[in-house]
């Protein structure tokens, strides 16, 4: 019985139509247009921040919809969070070294 | 009921079901997917290390990066971004098609993905050969007149986009093998985890490009 429920849930989670993915694709195209046009404007030090924020939003869209993370069991979100924390730590420690190193 | 015992019940059911037809097929889709994700994380850290190198040098040589990045063709970069996004979308549409038992349409979508991958590599070929023609390559004549920061930028450009291109080729081979298995009905509407795994790999390669594109092509 439990297996049946499990199966049904799994089925429901994956039975999305073509529409939602095409919509996400257009969203990604729009964000690409934004990031290319914003790069043409001189925002000074904000340029990098804006580019990275847009890239992060695009990544969230790809991961959640194309990679099905949104519809999958929550364990994959935990996996990804751990990976991000490790990567952020590596970046943080590198920049600590870079900024505070005395020549 | 804990997840472990749930899985045990599930496996017992599967075992029973197969015992009737007299064959035992071991299948663990969730395990397969988890394995794929763990592999993707090693890829993230592989590229992550390079992104950190990029960031550290950008911190030191921010002006030289701007001068060097002006050499890159934003137009080709944008085209390649659109091509990769379309290819990713096609993979996921292929999964929907297969779920709906439409094998032909699924293979059609995957052929489109292959075509996009090839188009990406052709663009990359023209881009690289143009740079090499200008003398911009490791130890190339154009680099002799450049500042240290510009040389570093182009070194990172070749290594990072090169490794990414290698991943595109691997992804195309991966999807090609999956397509053959779909053709031979080894991957079907109720057994398509291998297609999903190929898709996950392809999407990760797409995500890496989503970051490479603004960091190399859009610095002004």
List keywords for this structure.
heterodimer; A: 103 residues; mainly alpha; 2 domains; 4 helices; 0% strand; flat; disordered N terminus; B: 220 residues; Four Helix Bundle (Hemerythrin (Met), subunit A)
Structure annotation, total helices of chain B: 7
Number of domains of chain A: 2
Query: What is the approximate shape of chain B?
Result: elongated
CATH architecture of chain B: Up-down Bundle
Give the overall shape of chain A.
flat
Summarize this entry quickly.
The complex is a heterodimer of chains A (103) and B (220). By secondary structure, chain A is mainly alpha-helical.
How would you describe this protein?
- The complex is a heterodimer of chains A (103) and B (220).
- Chain A is mainly α and 103 residues long.
- Chain A folds into two domains: 2-72; 73-103.
- Chain A is 81% helix and 0% strand.
- Chain B has a single domain, classed as Cytochrome c oxidase, subunit III, four-helix bundle (Four Helix Bundle (Hemerythrin (Met), subunit A)).
- Chain B is 80% helix and 0% strand.
- Chain B has seven helices and no strands.
- In chain B, helix 2 (29-60) runs antiparallel to helix 6, helix 4 (74-99) runs antiparallel to helix 7 (193-217) and helix 6 runs antiparallel to helix 7 (193-217).
- The model of chain B has no long low-confidence stretch (mean pLDDT 90).
- At the A-B interface, helix 1, helix 2, helix 3 and helix 4 of A face helix 1, helix 2, helix 4 and helix 7 of B.
């Amino acid at each position: 019985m439990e297996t049946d429920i499990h199966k049904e849930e799994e089925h429901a989670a994956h039975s999305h139509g073509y529409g939602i993915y095409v919509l996400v694709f257009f969203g990604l195209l729009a964000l690409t247009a934004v990031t290319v046009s914003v790069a043409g404007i001189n925002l000074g030090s904000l340029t990098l921040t804006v580019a990275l924020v847009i890239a992060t939003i695009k990544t969230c869209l790809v991961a959640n919809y194309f990679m099905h993370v949104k519809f999958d069991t929550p364990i994959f979100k935990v996996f990804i969070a751990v990976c991000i924390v490790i990567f952020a730590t590596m970046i943080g420690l590198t920049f600590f070294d870079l900024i505070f190193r005395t020549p | 009921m804990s997840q472990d015992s749930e899985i045990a019940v599930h496996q017992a059911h599967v075992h029973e079901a197969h015992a009737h037809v007299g064959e035992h097929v071991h299948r663990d889709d969730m395990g397969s997917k988890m394995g794929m994700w763990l592999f993707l994380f090693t890829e993230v850290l592989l590229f992550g290390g390079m992104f950190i190198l990029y960031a550290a040098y950008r911190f030191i040589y921010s002006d030289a990066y701007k001068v060097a990045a002006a050499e890159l063709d934003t137009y080709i970069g944008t085209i390649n971004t659109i091509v990769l996004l379309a290819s990713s979308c096609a993979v996921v549409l292929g999964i929907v098609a297969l779920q709906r038992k439409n094998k032909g349409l699924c293979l059609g979508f995957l052929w489109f993905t292959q075509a996009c991958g090839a188009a990406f590599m052709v663009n990359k070929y023209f881009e690289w050969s143009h740079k090499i023609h200008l003398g911009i390559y490791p130890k190339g004549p154009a680099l002799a007149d450049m500042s240290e920061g510009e040389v570093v930028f182009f070194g990172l450009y070749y290594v990072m986009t090169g490794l990414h291109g290698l991943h595109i080729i691997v992804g195309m081979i991966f999807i090609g093998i999956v397509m053959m298995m779909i053709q031979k009905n080894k991957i079907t509407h109720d057994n398509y985890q291998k297609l999903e795994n190929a898709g996950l790999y392809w999407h990760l390669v797409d995500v890496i490009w989503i970051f490479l594109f603004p960091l190399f092509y859009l610095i002004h």
